[in-house]
Amino acid sequence: xxxxxxxxxxxxxxxEAEGVRLxxxxxxxxxxxxxxxxxxxxxxxxxLTHGHFDHVTDAPAIAKRxxxxxxxxFEVTGWLQREGVAEDKVIPMNPGGSVRLPFGRVxxxxxxxxxxxxxxxxxxxxxxxxxxxxxxxxxxAGDTALFLDMKLIxxxxxDLAVLPIGDLFTMGPEDAVEAVKxxxxxxxxxxxxxxxxxxxQDGAAWAEExxxxxxxxxxxxxxxxxxxx
Length: 229
Ligand SMILES: [Zn+2]
Known about the structure:
The protein has helices at residues 53-56, 59-66, 74-82, 150-153, 173-183, 203-213; strands spanning 4-7, 13-17, 20-24, 45-47, 69-73, 90-93, 98-101, 104-110, 127-133, 136-140, 160-164, 187-191, 217-218, 226-228. Strands 6-5-4-3-2-1-14 form a seven-stranded mixed beta sheet, covered by helices on one side. It is of the alpha/beta class. Bound molecules: zinc ion (ZN).
C-alpha cells in the first residue's frame, strides 16, 4: 500500500492511506504558504510536534469540527483541552513512547528545540513522529537541530524522512543533508522553509545535495503539491 502526502506549507502535512487521514502540525489560516484554510482540512488524527503557534494554531478548531483525535506532548494536550478539545480526543505522549492506533503505530521521538503553547504556558519537550501507516515507516522530525540519535530512529528502516531546512529556528540545509545520512531513508523531503524571509531556502539546491551525497531520493514539492511513498 502507498501513502499520499500533501505539503500544506511550513510544517503542515496531510497524509492519506487506506481511508485514514492524518494531519501534522496544522498551521493554515495565518500561514502565507498554505494552499487551504483550516475549515477545509479533514482529519481522523492530528499530530502536533510541539506547542509553537506555527505548528498548532488551527488544531483545536479542526479537532472540534472533525472529531479527530490529537496526538501531542503531554503539556500540549493540556493546552488543547484549555481550547475546548474534549479529554477523550487527546492522546498525551512523551519522547520514546508509542501508541497503537487502528492504522498502525505512532512513536513520539526526541527533538532539540523549545516549546510553549500560544497562551504562553510551558509546552513540555518538543518531539518528532515516527509513523507506521499502510506498511510504511515515515519520520517527521519536527523542529529540531541535527542530533546523532537520528541513527537510532533510522534503525528499523525508513521509507520517508521529512526534515526542516529553514535554518535560524531549526537545522539548516547542510545539517539536514547530514540528517539524511544518519537516518538513511529511501526518500527525503524538506519542510519549515520559505514561509517567511528569515527561513528562505533553495529547496531544489538542497535536493541536489541530497542526491549527490546520499542514496536517498529527494522530493521537493510546492505547497499544495503531493507525492506518494
Ligand atoms: Zn518551533
